[in-house]
């Protein structure tokens, strides 16, 4: 009985692994075909995607720095980190300005 359950589990996992591999392979082929067919449009999409990822990464780093500084300064009443919103707005404006200038050239 237990051997049958283990065998079913192994079969299910291997089915999912095969399905995941097939999904990744088909997605890669579709992405490749799209890049070949629409190179200029894909270039704009990649540029904006990189900007969105960079903004998210910047916010994550700022949040981690802020929480690390708070945990280090938990015993003191002062924090030495600047306001988080001001820095993240500057980062976002710089990234969007760069992306817009890149797309216009």
From TrEMBL:
<keyword id="KW-0812">Transmembrane</keyword>
<keyword id="KW-0472">Membrane</keyword>
<feature type="transmembrane region" description="Helical">
    <location>
        <begin position="20"/>
        <end position="39"/>
    </location>
</feature>
<dbReference type="InterPro" id="IPR045340">
    <property type="entry name" value="DUF6533"/>
</dbReference>
<feature type="transmembrane region" description="Helical">
    <location>
        <begin position="45"/>
        <end position="62"/>
    </location>
</feature>
<keyword id="KW-1133">Transmembrane helix</keyword>
<protein>
    <recommendedName>
        <fullName>DUF6533 domain-containing protein</fullName>
    </recommendedName>
</protein>
<dbReference type="Pfam" id="PF20151">
    <property type="entry name" value="DUF6533"/>
</dbReference>
<feature type="domain" description="DUF6533">
    <location>
        <begin position="23"/>
        <end position="48"/>
    </location>
</feature>
């Amino acid at each position: 009985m237990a051997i049958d359950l283990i065998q079913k589990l192994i079969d299910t996992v291997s089915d999912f692994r095969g399905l995941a591999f097939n999904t990744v392979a088909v997605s890669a082929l579709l992405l490749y075909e799209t890049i070949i067919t629409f190179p200029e449009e894909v270039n704009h999409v990649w540029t904006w995607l990189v900007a969105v990822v960079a903004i998210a990464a910047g916010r994550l780093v700022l949040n981690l720095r802020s929480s690390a500084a708070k945990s280090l300064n938990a015993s003191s009443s002062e924090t030495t980190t600047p306001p988080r919103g001001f820095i993240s707005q500057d980062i976002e404006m710089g990234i969007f300005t760069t992306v817009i200038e890149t797309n216009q050239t």
